[in-house]
Amino acid sequence: MQKKALVVGVSGITGSNLAEQLLAEEWIVYGLARNPKTDLTGLTPISADLLNTDSLATALSEVSPTHVFITSWMRNETEAENIRVNSLMVRNLLDTVAPTKTVQHVALVTGLKHYLGPFEAYAKEGTLPITPVREEHPRLEIENFYYAQEDEVYAAAERDGFTWSIHRPHTVIGKAVGNMMNMGTTLAVYASICKETSRPFQFPGSGAQWNGLSDVTDARVLAQQMIWAATTEAAHNQAFNVTNGDVFRWNWLWLQLADWFGVEAKGFDGIIHPLETAMAADGPLWRSIASRYSLKEPDLDRLASAWHTDLDLGRPLEVMTDMSKSRKLGFTVYQDTRDSFFNLFDTLRAERLIP
């Protein structure tokens, strides 16, 4: 049977890179989103609302996927609402595809909030894990929508007989427009603004992040791990961390990023300087920059997610991710983190998203 993938959240960083990799490996690929990506040759876009079962039933009536990849989530005001909404999205989707009886594997992307806690209690005393974080770490004694999403997958797998995999990346780096968590593009836009205004490229985060070890996940590495887990029997019914495979300190990488843009780097000076504050009034400025350089996206908020970058760079501890589990099972993909950022910046410039 030819493998047919349903990529849920195909317009995001993770979903778009996954769809591209699946197509390169000659899968049949359906891409679902409220406004699905349509510029990938070979992709069949599907427009649907995961909170509307009628919308899903209509949109997926002619789709019989063998593999479902869930990369979508919705941000809400409270963690209780995050749990209600995001678990319902997963449940609605899996209930809708269940009658086809074709689904062999479901992959779900979550992240390091599994170990660090939800937005309301993120990386705070009482929730801080031992690092490097490992898959066997127990769930925190606190509500977390990632746990609720996982539980929906586990319940549907037991009911319908498919295998599953959970993927926990650390800060996904890749291209997307309109994405809610997008550190790479946020830093590219911030550096572009600094260059245009002669501002220093000020590190926005904590001393622990500036001096501590860290890692990130290239969207292409995440895509390859998801496909590997979906097609490797030994990886079925497992949760996996996923990062590039190297570590770095921001006090080194920040200078590398500044050099790429030709701006003055300013490191941690004892004070956290949130990007959300620093960029709060930059919407009109970015619109002017976009006009001057004929950029495709004049809306700063569709490119930069300062709140999320602040969340990651403001942590009070260093965060590293153990990759031993998938390495032992044969997943050996590696990506140099500096190149992850530089490749992204090259793409953003080539596609007229930054000057």
Automatic annotation (TrEMBL):
InterPro entries: NAD(P)-bd_dom_sf, PRISE-like_Rossmann-fold. It comes from the Bacteria. CDD domains: 5beta-POR_like_SDR_a. Residues 66-355 form the PRISE-like Rossmann-fold domain. PANTHER family: 3-OXO-DELTA(4,5)-STEROID 5-BETA-REDUCTASE. This is NAD-dependent dehydratase. It comes from Spirosoma radiotolerans.
